[in-house]
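BUG-530 | component: ligand-complex export | severity: low

The export step for heme C jobs runs without errors, but we want the raw record kept on the ticket for reference. Input record follows.
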Amino acid sequence: MIIKKRVAAAAGGASWPILLTALLVSLSLVPVCAAPPLASQEQRGKRIYTEGKGRKPIHATLMGPGIKAPGTAFPCLACHRDNGEGQLEGGVRSSNITYFNLTKQYTGLRPSGRSHPPYTDEALMTAITNGLDPAGNHLNPAHPTYEMDTEDLRDLVAYLKILGREPVPGVTDNEIRIGSLLPESGPLAEAASDITIFLTGYFAELNARGGLYSRQVRFVPLFFDPAQPGASAAREEVFCLVANLGVPPEDEALDVVAKAKVPVVAPLMVAPETAYGMNRNTFYVHASVRDQARVLVDYLAADLEKQGGKVAVLYAADESGEGGAAGVREQAGKHDLTVAAFVSYSHGAYDAPGTVHRLKEAAPDAVLFFGEGADAAAFLSEAGQQGWQPLLLTSAAMAGAALFGLPPGLTGKVFLASPVGTPDLASRGMADFRNLLRKYPGTGRHTQFLATVFAGAAIVEKGLTDAGRNVSRSTFVDAIGKLYEFHTGVTPPLTYNENRRVGARGASILRIDGVTRRFFTAAGWREPKQ
Ligand code: HEC
């Protein structure tokens, strides 16, 4: 069994005692998250609707500019949405093309502003291929006309008949099920059980207030056995996942979840170091090490007044270490900082005397370090022995508590980035969180952890609220993907958009009080300079 130690986040501030640690274990199984299968004709029609792919090639012609393109460039979904209800974009409304709506009898004008008899299957095919409604009126040229094989056209029409009425996984008329992948045993089991108690409570309170759009929201913990990869997790269908714990980011379980387009709200997972290839259905809360490194560089240049100076970077050759180094590289130029040395080391092969000697030679104004706490401690001790006390900037989550063991003299010039902001104690969210914690405390040992879980649940509730009664997985993802400075009270304001799946992309700066052995906040939470 692979066990990787990762620390998810660290917090500063007197009332927020520190670290939340996530041990990540390999998980080779997942609950079944897919929707019940459609009949095969509808299935094929759905592929045309969502991907523009039929049994034969499909072509779309844009009437206005007269451009002909492959069908895959203009799937119906792009304009009519996954529930068929359409949307208003650039002043043009793409119609509600649910079968119920199209085949309804109208006496006056339809919402399209035209009047025509109800659609029949043939009329529907004519609209798709020739852009005419059942009365022969031309549709708005924003709707492309399509050339496709008759069989494909029949499949598409079969699908249009169930469009908008497809069962949404995990959602029934009166219930919506929210899952969480949690370890049932091992070092994280206690935290997992506290999450279960807390989230069950969170949604019980929501239901007591009437639920959402006359649905009850039910929390479904999906336990896996971290000691037995391959053993089966609870195979229950859920609408989305929130606050997964102990699943490594590269685990194939998450691949399966991603392929099934299951939305994941991941407050406890470390955001990937680059946005490249990021899954748009997954929403993180806290910043990656890379973005934390960028805040450290901003702080060094501006607050510590080293603009135009020289830095050295020391990092472990792993994803987080390299993320930190990349962040420094990206940000240094913005402050005219020269990177005098980039030194990496592999795990277990850290040579403190040699490294210190090398970095000291480069005579930097500061050392930026991204690696394990023990290696940071070894670096500082060795530097002290060589009569050098450099400014050291690092990530609290990576290096954090290991530095508490050093003599105060060595930690006086250490600054740490923490992705967790100072909570807004007077906020409504904070009050709600405290009430919940009082009512559903669990062991009472994971307060900081549960604050982050609370933020995850608040995102889910907000996404469901904004998506409305007719929620689907993709309208839910779209709703969260539009949040701008969403206030949870327990995290910095969260912003998501199409290019941004990390809600609070910044860090605060902590220092170490050598006497009390605690962090204190040196500078408030901020985003990296763009
Ligand atoms: C680029 C955007 C776009 C795409 C892609 C698109 N449509 Fe449309 N569609 C529209 C717009 C806009 C209208 C509204 C036209 C109007 O009201 O005059 C429309 C109208 C329609 C109508 C007529 C509804 C009515 O009220 O009479 C049907 C049926 C339809 N689309 C089906 C489809 C199907 C099926 C596909 C995929 C094969 C598709 N559309 C792809 C934009 C699009």
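Assignee comment: Attached the raw record above. Residues 74, 76, 78-80, 92, 94-95, 97, 112, 124, 127-128, 133, 139-140, 142-144, 146, 156 surround heme C (CB under 6 Å).
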